[in-house]
Structures are given as structure tokens and as C-alpha cells.
Amino acid sequence: MDKKTIIKTLEKIALYMELQGENSFKVSAFRKAAQVLELDPRSLAEMDNILKLKGIGASTGAVIEDLLNTGVSSLLVDLQNTVPSGLLPMLKIPGLGGKKIAKLYKELQIDSMDALKLACEAEKVQTLAGFAAKTEKKILTEIENLQSKPERTAVWQLEPIVEMVESKLATIGEIEKYSVAGSYRRVKEASKDIDFIIATKSPQEVRELLLNELPVLKVIAAGDTKVSVTLDGENEIDVDFRLVELHQYASALNHFTGSKDHNIKMRQIAKEQGKKISEYGVELEDGSMQHFHSEEEFYAYFDLPFIPPTVREDGSEFSKLDQLPLLVTLEDIKGDFHMHSTWSDGAHSIEEMVEASRAKGYSHIVITDHSDYLKVANGLSKVRLLKQIETIHELKNKYTDIEIFTGTEMDILPDGSLDFEDELLKQLDFVIASIHSSFSQPQEKIMERLYNAVKNPYVHMIAHPTGRIIEQRNGYNPDVPTLIEWAKENGKVLELNANPYRLDLQTEYLKLAQEKGVPLAINTDAHHIAQLKYMDIGVRYAQKAWLHKETIVNTWTLEKFKQFIKK
DNA sequence: GCCGTTTTCGGCCCGACTGTTTTCAGTCG
């Protein structure tokens, strides 16, 4: 028996109970028990007294004992025998929760999505108390939507929509302040919707402007403080706007940034002090409201340091507050070591890339165009690379405030060989190796390719180590823990590729790499000067993995970086 | 279902919106 199975079982029991229309506190007691186990860093073997944990009582404890003794939970088995599994997917229909689904099952014997659809079409659902024609119609529409709309949308698909909405909000005079919130602000890889907080004195006017000037496909809700719409575009996406007064803004931003678990912890902390947190402020014992100018002020009010949105997750952040000052921030970044120019498939000349990097205040960068093998990207031949080295050496003289290093993003070929000879690599300051081909090879072969790159003395870094595209492509499935071991043994850097398509390595591996003492680089892989901005999301994604400044190569001084690449 | 040196009963994070009601339950975040 492992911890994961216990957690999964408790969560499943909660789900089935919800579908029975059980008391919601009872349901959440099982969820809480699962969370207690999840948040405990110890493995099952290390936990000698699992039944004594706070949040685990007689019933949840019995489930755990059952699992430990017999390998199955008789409670879950009973529930699965009573509650048809076809009810589970119905929870995904917006507007339907446990209570309503239980009612549909009890009174109309609806036990699946298909049965529900038929019952709605036959207008049977509207005969139930609490349901009416409008609800019935809505259920049908939502079932249709479920089939056409993906559950979550990737961060790279959300980014242009956030920019579009922000540029619109900026033009509305009645808006005093605004910010994106929700999981997008926490840099989740994918989100169900986008949240915005708006401070305004004229909520009605702003509501009308939002509804009229945004590409609204559907209005989900439009109240005085909340506007919820589906926006039209390449990807249909739900967007929530919360309209508050300026003095409520910091509290609203904090509340709607979440996460839910983070908020619950904060409310518990407040409660212990006899205070009550809501999205409008903090209510004191005498009933008066405390307001804040910023989230920093809000946390300080509870004697907490500012907790960045990126780490507001499962509540475990509250036990790691001492690490917050160590986390990497954008201000720590001194350079970007993976970018392309017109020499391969970039949109700008080397000089333009240098100028844009200077504007960012960087002290050093590396130009890393593609290598010969990648013909589709106009990869550089040996001759062209030598010429580029010469060009960069000439350009170096022009600048005293930024160091330009020569480099390459060299392909690791399908047969495992490297695209350039050592003799050529030797002449470069910084060598990146990466895989762009034959993703479907068996893991053994992929690892052989990576091993060849890692053991080469002239290679400094492996870029986008898994090759994934968020929510779209899994990559080439390397054995990352082994790669991390190899990087450690051979003194290589692994990349956190900051392009929102990639965010590769992902957080679980970034954590592991830092634990093992492997240096990590955050690079934009920019093919356009506009993409240099991805350093920001890269750094914030790194925070999600609790990466420290000193782990990140980009925070090292020019001198330290020079020392490192010399070897 | 779980918890508790104010409590072993009565809370549980809190509030908005919708749809179905005629004062509120259910859902959602």
C-alpha cells in the first residue's frame, strides 16, 4: 500500500458521497483527510502514527486501516456498488453539483450523461422541483459545450487573450486599477478561465463597457460586482471580472488570486485572531473593516512576509516562509543565454538582439543560433558558424556595457551523434545541445542521445530537456531523474526554457535538480525581440519550484559566468 | 466527518449569482 493510493481512495470516497448529495462538511472531511496526507512530506513508512494526524478521525482512519490491512476500502466498494459510475462525469456540467445529480438519479433514474441528455430532450427534467425549463435547456447547452470545449486552456493560449483584455481595460477611463488574478497570475500551466480584478467607482458603466467592447460570445453572469463571460476567438475562453472599490482592491486581488487552499489557510490564521477575511477586507472583532493598499500590507497585517502569487498553492508554502527571501526574482537576472538571430530562424539581427538585451539591463548574453542539421530553421553550417563567430567578435568592440558571447544551439542527431565536431565547439564560448527530431524513439535511445551530449566536454547546457509543449505534446519522454544525475556528474546546466509553450523542465524536475545541486538556466529561446519578455514568466515559473537565486546561472555575475564556461 | 484549555455540540472560509422561488437552495470560485 502506498500513500498515493490512500489519498486517491479518500478523494474518490468524497466524490461518491458528493454524488449521493451527502452533507458537504462530511464530504470535505474526507477531502481534508486526503490533503493532510498529501501535505505531509513523510512517506508512508516514515509515518508511524498516521491515525493520530489532525484531520483524520474515526471514519477516515478506518478507511486507511482497511486499505493497509486488505488493500481495498470496503466503504469505497460499497459506494461504487450504490452510486453508478456514470454520474461522475456529470459533475463537469456547470450548474450541476452533487445535490442536483443525486436528485436526478433518485427521481428520474438518470445514471449517465446520455440518459440526462435524453431526459432533457423529453422535457422530463423540468418536472422536478428545483428544476424548470430554463435549467433543462441550460443542461443541454452545457452538455454540447463539454464535447466541444477543452477543460483547461494552456498558458500560451491564454497569454494573448490576457494581453487583449488588458489593453482594452487600459482604455476605460472609469477603471482606476486592474490586474489579472486567478491561476494565470499564479503561473499555472493551464487554467479553466481567466480572472480580472477591477477597481472602479462606476461598476454599472464598466460592466456595460465590458459587455459591449469585448468579443463576448456568451454572458454567463452579470451582476453588480461580478461579470462572467465567454470570449470568442481562436480559443473560446471564460473570463471573470470582479468589480470592487479602490479600497477593497488589494483584498479582492488576493482573494481571487487564490489558490483556494491558500485562502483557506489565511482565513484560518485570521480566525484564530478573531478576524474574518473576505474579498472586501478584514472584518475585526468589533465589526469594523480593515482595508489595505497592497497585498504586501495585507500579509504584513497578519505578521507574514509577502507571499508571491506563484507559491500560493496547497498551503505547504506557510511552512516554507523562511525560504521566500532566497527565491529568484526578475531583478536578479543578469543575462539570457539562449536566443536566435536572422542567421538561423530568428526575426532580428544579432545587433538588434544585443540592443534589446541592453535595454533589459543585462550584463551578458549568448547568441545561440541553430546548427546545420536543422534545415527548416536555417541551421548554420560550420563555415557560417565560423563567420558568425568573427562577426560577433567584431561587434563586441562596439559595446562596453554588455558582453556578447558566441554560442550555438546544436542538434543532437537521431543516431546520437552531435552536429558539430569538438574542434569547432572548442571555439565557442557557450554550447547548448538539444533534441529537435525523432521524438518517438524508445526511451533508451533518447537517453543514449542525451548521454552523448552530457559527456561531451564542450557542451555546457541541455536545452528544453523534455521537448514538451504544454497541453499539446508530451515531448520525447526522457528519464529526467537520470538526466539530472548525469548533469550533476558532468557539471552541466539544465534549462528552464521560459517560452510559455514549453516551460521545460517542469516544476517537479526543477525541484529535484535543485536538490541534487544541478545549476539551472532560465532562458527565453527568443526568436524575436518581443520574446525576451518571457524571462518574466520563466522566473515566476521557477518560483513555483522554489528555485533559489544561487541555483540559477543567469543570476551569477559576469565574472562567475566566465569562470564557469571556461572549463 | 472532524474538532475543541472559552466548546463533546455546533460550528466548519466566505460571499455572489442564478433560477426557482415568494425567502432560499445550489453551485461556484
From TrEMBL:
Enzyme Commission no: 2.7.7.7
Enzymatic class: transferase
DNA-directed DNA polymerase X domain boundaries: 1-313
UniProt-recorded Gene Ontology molecular function terms: DNA binding; DNA-directed DNA polymerase activity; exonuclease activity; phosphoric ester hydrolase activity; zinc ion binding
Pfam family, one: PHP
GO cellular component: cytosol
Reactions catalysed according to its record: DNA(n) + a 2'-deoxyribonucleoside 5'-triphosphate = DNA(n+1) + diphosphate
Example GO biological process: DNA repair
SUPFAM superfamilies: DNA polymerase beta, N-terminal domain-like (SSF47802), Nucleotidyltransferase (SSF81301), PHP domain-like (SSF89550)
Polymerase/histidinol phosphatase N-terminal domain: residues covered: 335-414
Alphabetical keyword list: DNA damage, DNA repair, DNA-directed DNA polymerase, Exonuclease, Hydrolase, Nuclease, Nucleotidyltransferase, Transferase
Protein name: DNA-directed DNA polymerase
Species in which this protein is naturally found: Psychrobacillus lasiicapitis
Gene: polX
